């Protein structure tokens, strides 16, 4: 059986060149970057070079990059760190109903500490309303955290407009979870008015367990870990040198091939749509078709059941996912689709996410779409 992996938004395989880059480092560059001897200095040099490279990739300064264990820690550090460092200015945070759980659960945690959180609604296209955001802003607002591109439906938020709006609210820092967008979208933190930005390596064909947080110079955050003075006292713990270099090289490869990937992934979407239409498959696209990440495609198949779809696709060798958490024979409703379409919408129980990445070919997409077509027709007859 030919297996096709179309769940890259969950995690993507490491690029072979990244693996080759990391192996010698794991064997030879074992020095602690905080040590002053040769071995430590060599590790420090690798960290400094990678930090500078990643900073350039988003238009930042090298001292604005904090290495972390991935997207979740980056989100936590950005949100909790900003909240604790600025609570004397106010205790109001704004986010949206469709954020990743690394953001939503962090905001819920802060609510227990006495912070007030406004959860912005979204339209059926998955975007927030700038007017609703403006109405929610107060003199007490210290943080606005809104994801760049949604991990379930791919919708891109109006990031530049949000950054422009927040210029009139100097006490409110702007954080964006760019885990799905980095490496596929052209991101310049200064042009977009972003103050904090989260990235994870394993979404761009780097290693798991490493990422970075950009924090604009002058923005105050409190560290969530207590120990040494690594990362300019912002994140204690000995740095994962091989993983960080792997992240840096994965970022280099991803950004260098950005235009090529965008064109390829959009051609995948067109191929899928063509095949579905030719076979008279009933479907609708969830989210925005125009303002969307090219590698994420969330589709509603009326009359199907998401669990049956996922199981049958897996048995046929096609790996996809829903935006839901599967638990012991039941599937919890996707909070993203609920926010977009309402809790009673049939889309919640009949939608799957296809997401593309390294190694996928047009032949694979055609095969997977034909398989999906047969399964959907079988489940709806």
TrEMBL record:
Its cofactor is pyridoxal 5'-phosphate. PROSITE patterns: AA_TRANSFER_CLASS_5. Its EC number is 2.8.1.7. Pfam families: Aminotran_5 (PF00266). Residues 4-366 form the Aminotransferase class V domain. It catalyses: (sulfur carrier)-H + L-cysteine = (sulfur carrier)-SH + L-alanine. InterPro entries: Aminotrans_V_dom, Aminotrans_V_PyrdxlP_BS, Cysteine_dSase, PyrdxlP-dep_Trfase, PyrdxlP-dep_Trfase_major, PyrdxlP-dep_Trfase_small. It is an enzyme of class 2 (transferase). SUPFAM superfamilies: PLP-dependent transferases. Keywords: Iron, Iron-sulfur, Metal-binding, Pyridoxal phosphate, Transferase. Belongs to the class-V pyridoxal-phosphate-dependent aminotransferase family. NifS/IscS subfamily. PANTHER family: CYSTEINE DESULFURASE, CYSTEINE DESULFURYLASE FAMILY MEMBER. This is cysteine desulfurase. It comes from Metabacillus herbersteinensis.
